[in-house]
Specification:
The protein has one helix and five strands; from the N terminus they run E-E-E-E-E-H. The chain has a five-stranded antiparallel sheet with strand order 1-5-2-3-4, with no helix packed on it. A hairpin with a 5-residue loop joins strand 3 and strand 4 (42-44). It is 5% helix and 24% strand. The termini are far apart. It is globular. By secondary structure, the protein is mainly beta.
């Protein structure tokens, strides 16, 4: 996985899901999975249909997501 990249230096590809860093949010998380949309705003990645724009927050850095873990087939089967 690569290092953190400043949004001042480079933006991720459109629709690429990345880990975003949002500093100085009180009583909330600083890290989230999000993606860049054509309107140049970051959006939180959601599993439901409700998608929140991150435009109200200042994303300062992003980085690629790690690879998914490799699970053996037996670990996927429930006993």
């Amino acid at each position: 996985m690569s290092d953190w990249i400043s949004v001042k230096h480079k933006m991720p590809g459109i629709h690429d899901h990345v880990l975003i860093y949002i500093p100085n949010i009180e009583n909330c998380f600083e890290y989230a999975v999000g993606y860049l949309e054509n309107d140049k705003n970051f959006y939180f990645s959601e599993t439901e249909d409700n998608i929140d724009c991150v435009a109200d927050y200042q994303v300062t850095h992003w980085r690629e997501l790690p690879e998914k873990p490799k699970l053996k087939e037996k670990a996927l089967q429930k006993e």
